[in-house]
Write a structure and sequence with these properties.
By secondary structure, the chain is an alpha+beta fold. The chain contains 17 helices and 19 strands. The strands form four sheets. It has an eight-stranded antiparallel beta sheet, sandwiched between helices. It is globular, with a radius of gyration of 22 Å.
Length: 465
């Protein structure tokens, strides 16, 4: 350890205590991002400690990367610099919870599964059924901006994140929003932090709206010979008065991947995907209600599926509740373990253009000889996992060409594309954040306002921010 590194550790220990500073190389390896390992990791226990840590790092020009459960560190661009990891897992309290008011305030390091357990005691939940759920924290989930299958009914975090407290790159504490469902005071600065990868600030508190937990959930699955038939069922459901919790379309590659031994290991238990023929397209829909309305859901889903050309369909009850959000929710983690060098694209187009997009994905992958799996939500957001059999230069070339062809097709359809996950050594060859757009200039100006010294997760966001 160099003298500078030693001085850094000494100062961090003065702020948060020696027991909360990590310098052991084996432990630091757990904070690695694309081959970069910090000189130290610190676990602050208060907002004030985070302010002091950031002020120190800004003065010494040390690059900080905030983290929590570390399940999504491989997302985004490769850091330009990485000196100190600020681990928020000690900040794991529920600060305020008012079940009657459907509001909740938590620290960023609280695990989502523990939070879900507390809310379940009041028959409530926050709709953050996100990938890597067993390790995910509230702060990391918001900072990474990952999707949930539940966005079909509840929207994204932008729709139920009421407010936030954070520390800027100058070590200044700030807040935005509040702890009421209707808040009109000031700018929604907290929404800038969603998906910003920690480049604008370090989250210290999050305020959420909670929701009544779904009653008597059911999972409907239907299989089809073609993508067009699967999309026809989606169209019918979207135009019906039914309000489904989730609505997902899987191509045969995704059906195979989500029913594999890898999938069963990562997300154990029965899953309706296991019972779908491996050469079929699948539509999965979750819904919840009770009594006569629940019966209507079941009858209507069966009727619409048959009219769309369903080959086989079934409805699973309470005993199979994990099938509503389990393996589909864990599509990305399962994909990452299903190939030597998985590259995952997130594509957004209008729902009416999904069919053309999926055709283009299939053509690009097949022309380049790359296995692939696709998962599409009802609102037009698709995830594509390119699954090469190797990690050498030949496979890299094939995957890069397929990803480029898919990105161009998405752009021609008026959509957006990003590449949230890819091997670290391939990222410099890929358009991780899609083609540069005019708003990147505004993003850079915002970065200067929130982090003038450029020490917060430099290089991880769009345009190298």
């Amino acid at each position: 350890m160099t003298l500078a590194a030693g001085e850094t550790v000494t100062r961090l220990a003065e702020i948060s205590g020696a027991a909360n500073v990590i310098t052991d190389s084996a432990q630091l390896a757990g904070y690695e991002i694309d081959g970069l390992v910090p000189s130290a990791a610190v676990k602050p226990g208060t907002r004030e400690e985070i302010c002091e840590i950031v002020k120190f790092c800004a003065a010494e020009k040390l690059a900080i990367i905030p983290c929590g459960g570390r399940s999504k560190l491989s997302m985004g661009g490769t850091p330009a610099r990485y000196d100190v990891a600020v681990d928020a897992t000690r900040l794991d309290r529920i600060v305020v919870y008012d079940p009657n008011d459907l509001t909740l305030s938590v620290e960023p390091g609280i695990p989502l599964q523990r939070l879900a357990g507390v809310l379940a005691g009041h028959q409530q939940f926050v709709p953050l059924a996100v990938p890597f759920l067993s390790r995910a924290t509230a702060g990391g989930t918001i900072a990474s901006g990952v999707d949930s299958p539940l966005r079909q009914l509840y929207g994204t975090a932008r729709d139920f994140l009421l407010g936030m407290e954070f520390v800027t790159g100058e070590g200044i504490w700030g807040k935005s929003g509040g702890l009421v469902v209707k808040n009109v005071a000031g700018y929604d600065l907290h929404k800038l932090m969603i998906g910003a990868m920690g480049t604008l600030g370090i989250i210290t508190k999050l305020n959420f709206r909670t929701f009544p937990a779904p009653r008597s959930p059911r999972v409907f699955s239907a299989s089809f010979d073609s993508c067009d038939d699967a999309l026809e069922l989606r169209r019918r459901v979207m135009q019906s008065p039914l309000r489904v919790l989730t609505l997902d379309i899987l191509n045969p590659g995704a059906v195979q991947m989500l029913s594999s031994e890898i999938a069963a290991r990562l997300e154990p238990g029965p899953d309706c995907v296991d019972r779908i023929a491996k050469d079929k397209w699948a539509v999965l829909a979750a819904f919840a209600s009770s009594g006569a309305l629940l019966q209507r859901y079941q009858e209507e889903m069966n009727r619409m599926a048959k009219e769309a050309g369903c080959e086989d369909c079934e409805i699973a009850g309470d005993e199979n509740r994990p099938t509503a959000f389990g393996r589909v929710r864990e599509f990305v983690p399962i994909a990452l373990e299903s190939s030597a060098a998985t590259v995952t694209l997130k594509l957004s187009v209008l729902p009416t253009k999904v069919g053309k997009l999926l055709d283009a994905v299939s053509s690009a992958a097949q022309e380049n000889g790359v296995r692939f799996a696709t998962y599409t939500g009802g609102l037009g957001v698709s995830y594509v996992a390119l699954l090469p059999d190797g990690r050498d230069e030949d496979w890299r070339g094939r995957v890069l060409k397929a990803a480029d062809d898919i990105g161009n097709a998405c752009a021609q359809l008026g959509g957006n594309v990003t590449i949230p996950w890819a091997p670290g050594e391939w990222k410099s060859f890929l358009k991780i954040w899609g083609p540069e757009r005019t708003e990147f200039a505004q993003m850079r100006e915002l970065k200067k306002v929130f982090d003038p010294a450029g020490i917060l997760a430099p290089g991880r966001f769009a345009g190298g921010i």
